[in-house]
Amino acid sequence: MHEADVELTVFPDDCDPFGVASHAAFLRLFERARWDQLSRGPGVDVFSRQGLWPTVRRSVADFHAPVRAGETLRFQQTLTHFGRTSFTLRQIAHRASDAVAVATAEFLFVCVDAQGQPQNVPDDLGRFFSAGRSSEPIDRVTVNGVSLAIETRGSGPAIVFVHGFPLDRHVWRHQLDTLTGYRRIAYDLRGLGQSDAPDLGYSIAMYADDLAGLLDALGEDRVVLCGLSMGGYISFEFVRRYRARVRGLILMDTRAEADSTEGRKARDVLVAKVRDQGAMAAAEAMLPRLFTPMVPPEIIQSIRTMILDAPVPGIVGALTAMRDRPDSTPLLGTLLGIPTLVIVGQEDVITPPAISEAMAAALPESRLVEIPGAGHLPCVEQPVPTTRAILKFLQSLR
Ligand code: MLT
């Protein structure tokens, strides 16, 4: 159990006549878990000592499995948005006995004073939840009205990592840790990880514009761009819009083609499931296809948690953005002057190696590296050879 998790027992008076915890009881349990966690950090008076109160502006809850009296639930709390006067907490309840996620909920709070006027969220709150989530320093940059979580390491020529669906910047852990001699930049796309997750405003073009804004904010004019799968779709769009800012391109387990008619329909089916069942539906759709059979269980678990942490609006937004993305195959032949490394896991079933081979053949300045023992996420499943291939490519650009 993570030290920030809160455990609560379900009692008979939380249950309906069939002995199953009711919806209303879950709202109470989620609230109890929030206060319990605050009591271990800045205190339950973190708001009232500043004359404030956090009012719930919106709540969304998904229930995945029944829970009965006597069972213990483990609640995880994640701050997914930290604005001036509002913040969003995402909460997941797992059954302690088998770690099955039984309910997820998201609460948007606005801090108000006694007159009901919005006031600044206490800084202590943001510090407390950020500290619980990661030992890495987390920075935030606001672009196009959305606050994005970023991590930057080292100095030197910059390389920016763009993650895939529905993941976050932590898939680049090994690359961030080890590519010394370069300024490594990884961020969470809008709607995913710890970035803000607005209800609207998702398109591949918007993700590319966010990236341009991020680079402006970081003072980076030209970068090497490394896009994994959906991150590759965004990289293509970035090149279309901001070509002069790209020194080199790394396309990892991605494809240039737009979705087929069947692919678009499948996106709509998954959108409906995610709206209905929450992030769990995305985890069930993605997890069986991401790895080779040899992947260690702890890697599956970490990616599973990452997906379950993803806010529903961000997952839905990403699916619709991918569904509507343009065909980038006409772009490939025009990329003379942009050295490109194509990387693919040898056992990737989502974007099989044949797709990367065809893409590399269509690119004027490319090399292809296939990573043995890796599926769709070679940066996670085989980080050492993947980082080595990236390093060799970066060195070749000097
Ligand atoms: C990804 O890994 O980003 C997705 O598999 C991309 C896609 O669904 O097209």
Description:
The chain is of the alpha/beta class. It has 2 domains: 6-131, Hotdog Thioesterase (Thiol Ester Dehydrase, Chain A), CATH 3.10.129; 138-397, 3-Layer(aba) Sandwich (Rossmann fold). 37% of the residues lie in helices and 24% in strands. It has 13 helices and 13 strands. It has helices at 23-39, 123-133, 173-178, 204-218, 230-242, 261-277, 279-290, 297-308, 312-323, 329-332, 353-362, 378-381, 383-396, and strands spanning 6-9, 53-63, 72-82, 86-95, 101-112, 139-143, 146-153, 158-162, 183-187, 223-228, 246-252, 340-345, 366-371. It has an 8-stranded mixed beta sheet, with helices on both faces. Strands 1-3-4-5-2 form a 5-stranded antiparallel beta sheet. Helix 6 packs across helix 7 and helix 6 packs antiparallel against helix 9. The longest helix has 17 residues, at 23-39. The chain is globular, with a radius of gyration of 22 Å. The model is unreliable at 132-137 (pLDDT under 50). D-malate binds next to loops.
